[in-house]
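Quick question, first post here. What does this chain look like in 3D?
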Amino acid sequence: MALTTVASTSHKIGIEGLGDGRRRITLDRKTVPADRDFTLDWAPKLAAEPLIAAFRERIGDDVFVTALVMPPAPKHATQNTRPRDVVFILDRSGSMGGVSIRAARSALDAAVDRLGGQDRFNLIRFSNDTETLFKHAMPASDTNRLFAKLFLRDTTADGGTVMRPALHAALNTVAAEGRLKQIVFVTDGAVSNETELFRDIRQRLGNARLFTVGIGSAPNSYFMRKAAEAGRGAFVYIPDIKQVGTRMTTLFDKLERPALTDVSAVWQNGETDPVAAETFPARIPDLYFGEPVVLVSRLPAASRSGDTLLSLGAGGWKTSLKLNDARIATGISTLWARAKVAALTDSLRDRRAPRRRESRDHKNRAHPQSGHPLHQSARDRTDRRTPRRDTACHGRRAAEPAPWLEVQHDHGQAPAQTGGGPARAGAYAAHRLQSPVRSCDPVRDPAAGGDTLLSAPRHRRRITGCRGVGAGGRHPPARARRMRRVPSRRQALAAAGALLAIAGLWQLASAVFIPAKAAVAQVMLHRAWDRTLAGEDRAKPWPWADTWPVARLKLPGVGADLIVLAGASGQALAFGPGHVSGTAAPGRTGLSMIGGHRDTHLKVLAELVPGSRVELQRPDGVTRAYRVDATSIADARQPWAAPVEADGLVLVTCYPFDALIPGGPLRYLVHAVPVER
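> Answer (accepted):
Ran it through. Tokens below.
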């Protein structure tokens, strides 16, 4: 395999050509600080067909081989003709809050726009609960894309990371024959049950591919890398939030054009006799442009004949490589050994029984005498204590080894005033402060005439010794006096009221901010529209905007005058209604679709009735009038397709208009037809 470039971005190197395509790489200096990894970048000279490069090493009677399968050159790539079922899973737990969730929403919004006409897709989001956009993968029609954009727009980060139900929802559906199923999992991987998730992936994956995308500075790279390996996909790590768009675009480019799928590799002697080789990975991933597939194998001694070869195939492509044609190299056995150890580790992990958790009923079980909650492990530790002599109690041994004592009163009476000093001190501390105290006198049995019952629940905090108790027993132990008082009911209610007030003010500020932002944005958008009418192309309302006005929407009956933006992404819809890409341009012949939010710009759709007038002004100044023909409610989880030959306008928003929880499946559609002049 000829190389086009060899370079290092980490160190200065010297390159010496040895002929026959070989090069010797040396460091430019004899002594180099070992303060960073050495990185060598090389690029092969690709052809129209995949290439194979192999190296071998003999250790004892075994032969170790590594083979690199290189994809063809990108210029020879053709658009993938195999239809796909793409499932996007978005982690919306609290750890994804802030910039991470916004970047992930934007990337998936762009991914939905990239889907081909023959593709199907679905969206799943999860935190404590799992929600799916559709019941099953739906065609990538313009209407379904709009539903997906509205679904993403209503996705906020909150709650925990309960990942397993979301994985099940994606893995349980099987793609139809001839379709390629791809799962894109966007998360920070903040989970602790990796073993269960790995097992689920291996058992439920089928013929699907799983790609994991880690966003943020500290994702669970181990889980995400191993999950992608088990899913025959790839792991993409994006530490810088600013790189999310670029890195995700690269990933989607790769997913759209796999060079080879369902690759098989077989070692054999001659054309038919298989060789008992041990090859890793056991399930070979797909081959994508710009990314090789690496195989490592160990061949037994019987395979060292001149007829031993590696046969590769995928679909209509087949090739083979003779073992004797592989270059002799060192270190190949080490690569194989690492892969073997990793496979054994995965196997042991998959067979490991899940850790059993104690139930709450067990942990909160009551003590048989006191009736108080008792943690089993704490009691066991107490029972294992050895008795010791208490030097602070006049040389007498306590009734229990290091006990904690609590006073219980017969018939609900007040604490008894009889008894010795330590016993009375114990009654005082337990009754007045609900604090554990230690007794230094023998425990008195009520059956023998005593008026108190002293029990020993071992879950309470220990107070050592009896120092600080007066001879008359009039004062509680020193540590009992220092215990923190339990807040009163009035204080607890006041704190709860303050928290509720703060939460209410926060919600009120949010409710005021969203409409205010929408109203202010329309002022700036009208100014940009004036520049558009004056001839400016793609007049941005503000310098950093990634959208621009494409039409002016007027609803005279309800007094609405809105600027329509290019695209229906979540960012665009926050400032105004958006034109759904793929539909006819607003005001032009054909079916045009405009979407917006039910609580800001398009809340006026609830007031439109059949016969209401709608006007759309184009960038060239021409205004086209429409008449509302009907309204309907659609379920985003069900397919909906408009007739291709239709000429009209559809306004879409979420439904119901007064919903308290965003992200519901229903959509409100206003159908309008052109008014003949």
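Residues 353-483 have pLDDT under 50 and may be disordered.
The radius of gyration is 36 Å.
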